[in-house]
Amino acid sequence: MENNFKVNMNEYLPLRDVVFNTLRQAILKGELAPGERLMEIQLAEKLGVSRTPIREAIRKLELEGLVLMIPRKGAEVARISEKSLRDVLEVRRSLEELAIELACQRMSEDDMAELERVQDNFKNAIARGEAMSIAQSDEQFHDVIYQGTRNDKLVQMLGNLREQMYRYRLEYIKDEDKRRVLLVEHEHILSTLKNRNIAEAKKAAREHIDNQEITVSRNIKEQEQEPAALARGRK
Question: Which residue from 104, 115, 125, 203 has the fewest beta carbons nearer than 10 Å?
Fold first, then answer.
């Protein structure tokens, strides 16, 4: 198992939670790939812990839908499915439109300046072509909008969704052609927010998410077809 992730100790968290967070991030960032077996002994050796917190973390990851337990085979990283993508994006689409509407009404001039600064970071990340930096600056762009709603409950709900979105966000930006589209979409959202145009801003946010769903769904279908195509080629 050739992975670069490692456990980051946090003195305020129990070991089982540290291990859970470490494995969760490794899955969300693709360091543990969909379909990859999770071998308790190997993971315990890699992270320098006993098998007990590994076993507890795997159980929690199964509850989140990030891990599948296969009879007589053990645990493996859950594959990205069209249904899970659709479920997450249906919720995100509604919450994002509400966030955009409130942000249009409540964002201050300082908030707008911060959004422009983060958009510049996003542009620079795309120019460098670093997938993780692009994903992180994309997240930051939306976070500024969420904070601009001044609604703590909405920010909390979107924060919970963000973790589940990470896999899909990385899947989307793997397609280099879509990075330019993302940049244009961000510029459009920024412009509509600055103009306080609620209807246009909501439309821009909706299109932004719709395009992500179309691209990632296509990628999922292609990935599902690859093993079948290889099997046919071996006959």
Answer: 203
Among candidates 167, 197, 217, which has minimal Cα distance to 25? 167
C-alpha 32/C-alpha 5 separation (Å) is 9
Residue 41's nearest CA partner among 79, 8, 74, 14 is: 74
Burial 53-63 (b: 16+ CB within 10 A, else e): bbebbbebbee
What's the pTM value of the predicted model, to 2 decimals? 0.78
Cα(104)–Cα(102) distance, rounded to whole angstroms?
5
Query: What was the pLDDT predicted at 9?
Result: 61
Residue 223 has pLDDT above 80, yes or no: no
- Name residue 75's beta-bridge partners: 69
Nearest to 171 by CA among 125, 211, 127, 131: 131
Tally the C-alpha atoms within 13 A of residue 26's C-alpha that lie toward its C-beta.
Answer: 28
Task: Using CA atoms of 167, 170, 172, 175 in order, give the dihedral in degrees to the nearest 10.
Answer: -140
Dihedral angle, C-alpha 160, 165, 169, 170, nearest 10 °? 100
Nearest to 127 by CA among 171, 191, 175, 176: 176
pLDDT in tens, 161-216: 887 787 888 888 888 888 999 999 999 999 999 999 999 999 999 999 999 999 99
pLDDT in tens, 54-86: 999 999 999 888 899 999 889 999 988 898 899
Rounded to 10°, the helix 15-28/51-63 angle is: 50
